[in-house]
Amino acid sequence: MIISKTMKSLLGTTLAGVALAAGLAISNTAVAGPLAPISYDMDNGNSGSYNYWDQIYTGTGSTTTDGAALTGGLGDLTDGVIALSNWYIAEAPAGNGPYVGWVNKNPIITFNFGTTVWIDSVTLYLDDSNVGGVLQPSSVDINGNNYVVTDPTPGDLLPFGITFSGLNATGSSLTLQLYRQSSWVFLSEVEFAGDVVSSAVPEPGTLALFGLSLAGLGFVRRRKAA
Ligand SMILES: [Ca+2]
Ligand SMILES: [Ca+2]
Ligand SMILES: [Ca+2]
Per residue in 130-154, pLDDT tens? Predict the structure, then answer.
């Protein structure tokens, strides 16, 4: 393919225009990236054939007591480990498996971010085994708004991830409630996408650089005066 000079120049202008438009769009719209909570609060999981506790939870509360109030820590739900097999495989023999499983309750989990964040999406990793009364929840509340949980792989009984996006939630925490449709709900990980809400105050890094360059100027001046 031969491209003439005129075509090249037109192409260049168009590309520059596209880049400019994209730059403007980015500067006006927050871009969602991974967001990590600093802690979450919830009731510990329950026991059945095994113990579906949050045993690696770092905060306050008994990680080996059914339903104990857990506060101020991180654990199974945010460790990056996503269960790829059903509870009866992943949790055997006992105690420290990747899931947290709750029975006969609709668990409430509050995630804390420590600063004001904008959250675009939440992804939940849930079991769907249809064994022992373990099914994905029928719906979830995110900050009080209800979302139906549809099985993205009907007929497939493996765990799955489901993303709720376009949330446009702003705050320093987010509350999630899972409404079970069977006796149990099993969750292995929760992921967030969004951004920290920035203010007009310069970041410490910028201030430090500014201070350094001022110090440098002062040093030069003193040397010249000497
Ligand atoms: Ca996990
Ligand atoms: Ca566990
Ligand atoms: Ca499925």
Answer: 999 999 999 999 999 999 999 999 9
How many whole angstroms from 173 Cα to the centroid of ligand 2?
Answer: 23
Rounded distance between C-alpha atoms, residue 45 and residue 91, angstroms: 13
- For residue 154, which ligand has an atom nearest its CA? 3
* Ligand nearest to the CA of residue 64, numbered in listed order: 2
CA–CA gap between residue 119 and residue 167 (Å, rounded)? 7
User: From the CA of 155, which ligand is nearest?
Assistant: 3
Q: Is the dihedral of CA 94, 153, 179, 115 positive or negative?
A: positive
Q: Which ligand sits closest to the CA of 82? A: 1
Question: How far is Cα of residue 157 from the mean position of the Cα atoms in its chain?
Answer: 24
Question: Residue 11: inside a domain, yes or no?
Answer: no
**Considering the domain boundaries, does residue 27 fall inside one?**
no
CA of 83 from ligand 1 middle (Å) equals 7
Query: How many structural domains compose the chain?
Result: 1
Q: What is the CATH number of the domain that holds 137?
A: 2.60.120.1190
Please check whether residue 84 lies inside any domain of the structure.
Answer: yes
Residues lining ligand 1 (ion), CB within 5 A? 76, 79, 81, 188-189
- The pLDDT tens digits of the residues spanning 51-62 come to 999 999 999 999
Domain range enclosing 145: 33-196
